[in-house]
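Subject: for your reference before the review

Hello V.,

The reviewers asked for a structural picture of the protein, and I figured it would be easier to keep everything in one thread rather than splitting it across files. Below is the amino acid sequence we used in the manuscript, unchanged from the supplementary table.
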Amino acid sequence: MIDIILLQKISDISSKIGPGYTFSMKNYLDGHHLQWKNQFVSIVWRNVNWDEDKVEVLRFEDQETRYFFISEIKVSDVHKINIGNF
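And here is what came back from the structure prediction:
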């Protein structure tokens, strides 16, 4: 069963990064691993052994990884994140 806190996190991140991603959720250790993915980047959030206020953005082109605080993602950043231009 998915709890309200997890649903809120999915909603918060999805609303920040916008449309154009496929979404998946997996069990991860004793928690969850959430992933949003498009042709350029993978955005990951975990709630185990992780800062729950951050997402990891992996650019496929060169395997560069960046970390962003969810609260710091602004509308002007979304397009750059979407195409891996950070």
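For the response letter, the relevant points are probably these. The two ends are 36 Å apart (CA to CA). The chain has two helices and five strands.

Happy to draft the paragraph if you're swamped.

O.
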